[in-house]
Amino acid sequence: MAEPRIVVTAPIPPAAERLLAELGEVVVSAGELRHEVADAEVLVVRGERVDAALIAAAPRLRVIARTGSGVDNVDVAAATARGIPVVNAPVAGAQPVAEGVWALIAAAAKRLGELRACIEQERWRDRYALAGRDLDGSTLGIVGFGAIGAAVARIGAAFGMRVLAADPAFAPPRDGTPVEAVTLPALVERADVITLHCPLTASTRGLVDRDLLRRTQRAPILVNAARGAVVAGDELLLEALERGWLSAVALDVFAHEPLPPTSGLLRDPRVICTPHSIGLTDGWNERVFASLRHDVGELLAGGLPRHLVNPRALAGTVAAR
Predict the structure, then answer these.
(1) Which of 18, 257, 306, 312 is catalytic?
(2) What is this structure's pTM?
(3) 271 φ, ψ to 5°?
């Protein structure tokens, strides 16, 4: 029997390729996915969009595996209609992403972008007017309290911060980290740092809008390492900075990726930008791809995965067992 053909939508590290090669032939897309998936049995998705048309172009597809936790770039409904299970790795990458978020928070709190501009623009004396923000004793607001949000909370508590969380499904951290559950408006009014960790859904698209940002009381830092469309537009963030609703912004995700080099976000030293990569580490790659290799292997062998996004895709199969 021929090995399953595994198509990956974008380059992956050698260690990840070796893990997937244990299951079948690995083909990294050269940018022609519509043709490359024609005989694929497994599709491993990074940041690329997998829509219904692409799924329809893969008649032999048996599994879709999404690196990381978010599946908003996969048409899960179309996959489910075809009986194709979608798996992800919601827990494996939480700690590296949380550490990356804290790199953004620290850079924004200590005004590193503005201080660098002092050097580049030969304004050395201006450094005295750019005092940073203390994290110890300040308030951290986490919007969306899943695995990543909980990891961010642990680090925030270690900094000596009070931690608030807004999440309709909030559950207290199992490790005992003190976290106060609040409404989103209350969080925005009380926080010195607001960090977004909710999935992109119909209810969270544009969640951070003008009315919400006008409620800030402490000119907080806003960090987004969730999805760009959770915020209602780049222009809104720039307005919030100009009006003093926010003091700084740190972004790893954008409404439209890649972010064009002409974006106004890149011209404001109060804005720190990274290219949707803040959690990518060697450890992240190892854990995420090991998780996907396990779940894809289980499905190919007729078993059940640990992290199944669309249980309905297997409903008939499970019932038959």
Answers:
(1) 257
(2) 0.90
(3) -110, 125
